[in-house]
Design a protein that fits this description.
Strand content: 15-25%
Shape: globular
Number of domains: 3
Oligomer: single chain
CATH topology of the largest domain: D-Amino Acid Oxidase, Chain A, domain 2
Bound molecules: flavin-adenine dinucleotide
CATH class of the largest domain: Alpha Beta
Number of strands: 22
Structural class: alpha+beta
Largest sheet: 8 strands, mixed
Distance between the termini: 41 Å
CATH architecture of the largest domain: 2-Layer Sandwich
Length: 473
């Protein structure tokens, strides 16, 4: 069996694990990140609303409320450093009647208590001035100007790349199966390797309760809560900011919202499940979403749907994030929404807990900036010409829906992408109307050429999702 020795082992490479890896890479520590899947951002961090919440939803006094507002305030600088798209759009939560308006007043009170800047209640007409297509039945809206939108998987990938550049080591297909302790050193078995570390950070998403139990902590459990989405084509562009409906005990309510890449989506639904491995969408879920979306925007044309997807929220019984130490294992668990928003603040919280256990010494050199992959689609003609002159592969458009070039695909592969969806999450191939129907075979050829993988070895996404099984002739 192989072995590796580190100061810290982080389990899970979602947005939380990667944000923690980046934060800890600022210090003189050896950090390993163990990820069960073959890439980063394979759990909740790839299938969520991508909203940087302002922070009025969480109960005042909770870690969730505090880290949400802190995280939201950190987004502009973080995304700028990492070259990740982020727009501070503001959001509205809408009501249609007195009951809803009372709820908006409660949310306003929570927002003020949580320190959310500049939130205010608008009348229906004031709200429609900002969002003209908002339903005429909307009578009031809670406006939160600090809310924003981002691309959750591109952020996770950027955090990973930057943490790696600063020395954190990532290991994929490394599912942690066993944890034991010898003296004050953890022994962590993942795949065919035994990792040793003094501290573990548990950032395993919906599996964080299982990781805790491996270390002898059964103080919490995680219930997955499915959220289904409808994603619409770019020509359905209708609204300019996230439009929430009043929340319930199950979540923040169904949204009609833009993505940073100018699609519109509707979602998420909220349904508890016992199965941690099922990401299915359902006809019932879609029907419900269409019906609810029309209450917010009557004119929404749901025939513009190009795909659907589902994510699993990691809901614990504690009604708050679980960020605490258990004998050298620091949990970052139960990180349901607003976990994407809170991730940079959670990383600092974990760092602070760790600094109470061991001395953290800053490195003399640490690189905050990450150079993103050039985005051909949003370049001017002059920029495009220059890029093609330097590298002709940028003159060859492979994904026509999203105008993604061979140069971008090759760069994604160079940075570690090996699957069709890994490339898709990095450069948006297959994200458009045809959903990869036309470009997938061409991208497979590029993966095979660049990596030496046989066509039969190329995966769509996780292990076992081979695109083709054998030549037909
Ligand atoms: C439907 C939905 C909508 C949401 N909307 C928003 C939103 O708009 N804004 C917001 O702020 N938040 C939102 N969230 C919450 C946000 O997505 C999550 O809080 C965040 O992605 C959690 O990140 P994570 O890293 O903790 O978990 P994950 O991204 O799930 O990562 C956990 C990782 O651990 C790995 N892992 C698990 N077990 C093991 C093991 N044994 N060994 C090694 N690795 C393991 C998994 O493979 C996975 O990659 C939403 C969530 C959902 C599901």
């Amino acid at each position: 069996m192989l072995s590796g020795h580190y100061d810290i082992v982080i389990i899970g490479a979602g947005v939380v694990g990667c944000a923690i890896a980046r934060e800890l890479s600022k210090y003189k520590l050896t950090v390993a990140v163990l990820e069960a899947e073959n890439d980063v951002s394979m759990g909740a961090s790839r299938a969520n609303s991508g909203i940087v919440h302002s922070g009025y939803d969480a109960k005042p006094g909770t870690a969730m409320a505090r880290l949400n507002v802190m995280g939201c305030a950190m987004y502009g600088k973080m995304c700028d450093e990492l070259g990740v798209a982020y727009k501070r759009t503001g959001s509205m939560t809408v009501a249609w009647d007195e009951r809803g308006e009372r709820m908006l007043q409660e949310l306003l009170g929570q927002g003020v208590a949580n320190g959310v800047p500049d939130i205010a209640i608008l009348s229906g007409d004031e709200a429609r001035e900002l969002e003209p297509l908002l339903s005429k039945d909307v009578t009031a809206a809670l406006y939160a100007p600090s809310c924003g939108i981002t691309n959750p998987f591109q952020l996770t990938i950027a955090l990973y790349e930057n943490a790696s550049e600063n020395g954190a080591e990532f290991f994929f297909n490394a599912a942690v199966k066993k944890i034991s302790k010898s003296g004050d050193v953890f022994e962590i078995s993942a795949g065919d390797t035994q990792y040793h570390s003094k501290y573990i950070i548990n950032a395993a998403g919906i599996h964080a309760d299982e990781i805790a139990r491996l270390a002898g902590d059964d103080s919490f459990s995680i219930v997955p809560r499915v959220g289904e989405y409808i994603l619409m084509d770019k020509d359905a562009l209708l609204v300019t900011r996230p439009l929430f409906q009043t929340p319930s005990a199950m979540g923040k309510g169904v949204l009609v919202a833009p993505t940073v890449d100018n699609n519109i989506y509707i979602g998420p639904t909220a349904r508890d499940t016992t199965d941690k491995g099922v990401y299915e969408t359902t006809a019932e879920g879609f029907l419900k979403l269409r019906e609810l979306a029309r209450m917010t925007v009557e004119a929404i044309d749901t025939r513009k749907q190009i795909t659907g997807f589902a994510g699993l929220r990691a809901v614990s019984g504690e009604d708050d994030f679980i960020i605490r130490d258990f004998g050298g294992m620091i949990h970052a668990a139960g990180i349901c929404s607003p976990g994407l928003t809170s991730a940079p603040a959670i990383a600092q919280e974990v760092r602070d807990i760790l600094s109470g256990m061991t001395e953290l010494i800053e490195k003399e050199e640490w690189t905050a900036k990450r150079i993103p992959i050039p985005k051909f689609e949003s370049m001017s003609d002059d920029e495009r010409s220059r890029l093609i002159y330097e590298n002709p592969a940028f003159g060859h458009v492979v994904c026509r829906c999203e105008t993604v070039t061979e140069g971008e695909i090759v760069e994604a592969i160079r940075r570690g992408a090996r699957t069709l969806d890994g490339i898709k999450r990095r450069v948006r191939t297959g994200m458009g109307r045809c959903q990869g129907g036309f470009c997938a075979p061409r991208i497979m050829e590029i993966i095979a050429r660049e990596t030496g993988l046989a066509m039969t070895e190329i995966l769509k996404d996780g292990e076992g999702s081979n695109m083709v099984v054998a030549p037909t002739r």
